[in-house]
Amino acid sequence: MTKPLRKAVLPVAGLGTRFLPATKAIAKEMLPVVDKPLIQYAIEEARAAGIEQFCMVTGRGKTALVEHFDIAFELERTLQERNKTEALEALKATQVEPGSMVTVRQQVPLGLGHAIWCARAFIGDDPFAILLPDDLVLSQTPCLRQLADAYRDTGGNVVAVTEVPREHTNRYGILRIGKDDGRMVEVTGLVEKPAPQDAPSNLSIIGRYVLMPEVIGHLAKMERGAGNEVQLTDGMAKLIGNQPFHGLRYEGRRFDCGDKVGFLEAQIAFALKRPDLADAVRSFLKSYV
Ligand code: UTP
User: Which residues form the domain of 91?
Assistant: First the structure.
């Protein structure tokens, strides 16, 4: 029997340098795709996978992320007085169960591995999910739900993976693979940002993970990896051989919203899925291309 998956860590302490100046005073994760900030997509996806407890790893200038999930009492009262029911409804999705969301601070952004280690007290001895809010996945079944289902079947660590062009392997965590049934792959090794000629495959990890708590012990050693950062990939690599470790080729399309082109593409793709916007968007797009 696998232990149920109830916790998720959302690292949001990065500097977001690729989006400056937009991210000078607001967090990258507060940037909206259509009308919802990236962080809200991540929380909704986590909820849909059965997650009940959330930990955001934050840094300086990230208070709006916490505010977003609080009750905006005055705003709600004003909307009620003005009978703005639709707007009130939109706010409902930003409410979380009292006490279900905590934050920890990563004072210095030393890398994703370090950010996850900062959540160690929250994680305790439980399996946990990680969602990187700047990766958005458009899919029939929410991506983390797919991972959670796979975790129930296999136990151990499960990460979402996708094929990337070989010349881009130096941007991602890349898998060395064993058995492969076309959907689930056995992970036999992990390398962070390998040069194309050194990459063991072109299967890359995206920002969705189900991990076992033992990864924290490896991250605690604070070994620096690619970019002189404490890399989550290096910590995960140490679990291989001791615990099951699988990659899941998820169903869906991923948008790297930490990158300008990926972010713009997500705006279009998500807007075209909206019945209230699709026609208008399709018609103005035609005038540009
Ligand atoms: P990125 O690699 O996208 O870095 O981090 P970034 O700082 O957010 O953006 P750029 O590259 O400067 O434009 C991936 C995820 O890991 C988190 C980020 O917040 C993002 O969700 N992260 C990264 C941390 O929480 N702490 C870190 O030290 C590094």
Answer: 7-285
pLDDT of 1 strictly over 80: no
Between the CA of 238 and the centroid of ligand 1 the distance, in Å, is: 22
Task: Report d(CA 68, CA 86) in Å as an integer.
Answer: 18
Number of domains in the chain: 1
Read off the pLDDT of residues 47-74 as tens digits, 9 standing for 90 and up.
999 999 999 999 887 889 999 999 889 9
For residue 175, the CA-to-ligand 1 centroid distance in Å is: 21
Atom of ligand 1 at shortest distance to CA of 109?
A: 28
Residue 264: what residue type? L
C-alpha closest to that of 6 among 213, 181, 245: 213
- Any ligand 1 atom below 6 A from CB of 256: no
Domain with residue 11: its CATH number is: 3.90.550.10
| Residue range 98-114: mean pLDDT, rounded | 95
Q: Which residue's CA is minimally distant from atom 8 of ligand 1? A: 14
How far apart are the C-alpha atoms of 85 and 98, rounded to whole Å?
23
Is residue 103 within 6 Å of ligand 1 at its C-beta? no
Inside any domain, residue 1: no
